[in-house]
Amino acid sequence: MQLVMGTGGMVAAAHPLAAEAGLAVLRAGGNAVDAAITTNAVLNVTQPDMCGIGGDFFALIHVPGGETVFLNGSGRAPAAASPEAFAERCLQTIPLRGLLPVTVPGCVDAWDAARQRFGTWGWEDLLVPAIRYAREGFPVSARLAAAIEKAVDLLTEHPATARIYFQRGRAPRPGELLVQRDLGESLQAIANGGRDVFYQGALAAALSAYCQQGEGLLTIHDLQNHRSQWGQPVETEYRGYRILQTPPNTQGVAVLLLFNLMAEFDLAGRDPADPERVHWMVEATRIALAERNRYLTDPDFVPVPDMTGKDYADRLRRRITEMAAKSKTVPCEPGDTTYFAVVDEQGMVVSGIQSIFQPWGCGQVVPGTGIFLQNRGSYFSLQPQHVNVLQPGKRTAHTLCASLIMHHDEPFLVFGTMGGDGQAQTHLQVISNVLDGGMDIQEAISAPRWFHGRRDFGLGPEGLWLEGRFPSALVTALQARGHQVGVVEDYSEMMGHAQGIMIKPPGGTRFGAADPRGDGYVAAY
Description:
By secondary structure, the protein is α+β, with helices and mostly antiparallel strands. It has 2 domains: 7-230 and 336-379, no CATH class; 234-335 and 400-524, 4-Layer Sandwich (Glutamine Phosphoribosylpyrophosphate, subunit 1, domain 1), CATH 3.60.20.40. The chain has 19 helices and 21 strands. The protein has helices at residues 16-27, 32-46, 83-87, 107-118, 123-126, 128-136, 142-150, 152-155, 159-165, 181-193, 195-199, 202-213, 220-224, 252-262, 275-295, 310-317, 423-435, 441-446, 472-480, and strands spanning 4-6, 10-13, 56-62, 68-73, 138-139, 177-178, 229-231, 234-238, 241-245, 337-343, 349-355, 365-366, 371-372, 403-407, 410-417, 450-452, 463-467, 484-488, 498-503, 510-514, 521-524. The strands form 5 sheets. A 7-stranded antiparallel β-sheet has the order 1-20-19-15-14-9-8. Strands 7-4-3-11-10-2-21 form a 7-stranded antiparallel β-sheet. A hairpin with a 2-residue loop joins β8 (234-238) and β9. It starts with a strand and ends with a strand. The mean pLDDT is 96.
């Protein structure tokens, strides 16, 4: 893919129609927040396996000449959710699918919070493209066609879901139109009545009734009580740049810990295939994810220690040796998410990320709405001593995170990726490619990547997976250091779909990049 350049507005998103819809908002005089909402809404339609209004949303928003703020749009566990509620059902873990892992969807309220604080457009204008693509259909990409085919058993289990995604009695083929009329009507209801339709009105009633009629715990009271939260980013300094991240309950602190761990290693100019570089980063990943799982949860319930300090990393760095650690690695689970970066002509920036967690969320559409509810609650633990134990009204530790890198107090790089637990290690590799390797953002995203910890590909949680574009000499060198190495295809979706915008000199030309591993696209003027 080619690096895209512009001097005005720019949108980098995981689907071309979404990026173009966001750019149209910027061209028509909307700002970055307006464009981000429109972009995300279209992604709801064109990436139904990855995201949707039944899920959560986080963003870093930078106002030119002013502050950078964090928007936490994650939903809480239902009031009826507790380990005891699952024990009564003879369950020792929270199911991955179905209505039991459903938590409050935070996306729509987060859109509204951002719109009211920073936006300039009304609902009726922001959602027009998404409504049109839902009602009239859009051409299915090869990636989405494969995702539907892969999930055929899940998507045909419930008639309301099957009617949408198997309209022809089979999965749609690339280029065929996917029409989602019910989703279009849900989006139209929000356009007409705003966020209250979703949390208090007709949509709230439909979502809660479906959960209550089934095995779910979500009620209309849980929806009515939901509100997003504003806060401040967490950050660290790295090579003269400030790396800003989304704070707990997101895993952004693990990203910052990774960079603090790497700060004392000589990475300048090293190739992504350099064996020492990969080894150091993998060992840092083991440490950072273990610390994340040890402490990360909802800070409203349990204080999360500051993992972003240099002294904290200095103590942990001693564990990195010349050989792979023998300690058990924390498994990294896959997860589908969508990330988008928006910069407007005035320099307002949105680094936004949204998800229904696992592919297709809970696995079933709420009849009459076209909405997949998220299965984010499956990330909770039922063990009483676990820091992320399920509690009523608690927000689970979240795999989503988004970056904004500042240089001389101006935005330099807006970046994020999908990929569940693997997001932190993708942030490390790509951002290091830029700050240590001197790459432009497209080179940094397109460069070969590795993924540590996927246990569903045959090597267990200790597995280190390399894209096939890495030289065989790297495989040999890493095996000699004790790593269990596997090789996947050249541009593997396992590595996530990343997007980014680089701005240099500060306030100047925008350089946009999308990931060749997915349907990503950059639109600019």
